[in-house]
Amino acid sequence: MWLVFALGSAFFAGITSILAKCGIKKTDSNVATAIRTGVVLVFSWLMAWVSGSVSTLGEVDGKAWLFLILSGFATGASWLCYFRALQTGDINKVVPIDKSSTVLTILLAFFILGEDVSWQKAVATALISLGTFFMIQKKPGEASHQGNKWLIYAVLSAVFASLTSILAKVGISGVESNLGTAIRTCVVLVMAWVVVFVTGKGKEVMKTDKKELVFICLSGLATGASWLCYYRALKDGEASVVVPIDKLSILVTVAFSFAVFKEKLSLKSALGLLLIVIGTLAMIIF
Asked: Is the pLDDT reported for residue 142 higher than 80?
């Protein structure tokens, strides 16, 4: 049964980007992030309750609270940038860059935390990096009307996602992961709504297209469902198998991007995807 939940985690994680893309055709990306975070918040606290970690909330010390808040800001910044990148860029280009946060996390851990990097992990990192580079290359004859703004936001999304992991590693190792996620999501929610009102987008919330609102909420539900399935799979299955299955959600995203948006992979992009898959599996194995 744990394998079913692991596959469910990958599936829901994979369609999150597709649903989000459907919900931000007209809707401002910051508004969409704020609405979606509210849905995710419910699921994050549900996970904390299911895992029984809510009862340990009073045991969180001052240092942990500081890093939880900082990692929450990093998570919020990552989500805001990710949605902005999705709004203007192709899913098949944005998602690989976001997934490359694994590479950035390894590099930051090496320089900041002094963690060792084996040659196997270095090779896996190189494969993921090369695969990402191949996937974001323009197709022959592809128009450049989108510009490179999406690329900047996609890279920032990966950077902030990496910082989230480092901050968590430095200061909140003693906090149960589900409780930490729930607290961070509260910070993300506040941050997202502050950004909405500071940028003068508050009035657009009530004007959100109903159809797009449904997709935005569904993307939040997909994220929550992915988290719940992932937690259940880890509870009953081996992490060495569950984690790579979840990371390979990019395959689901690519498949749905073709089915929904008709985004096709060039030969070079397909090779890039293959390298990312191989690198991801090698990262887990070694």
From this structure: no
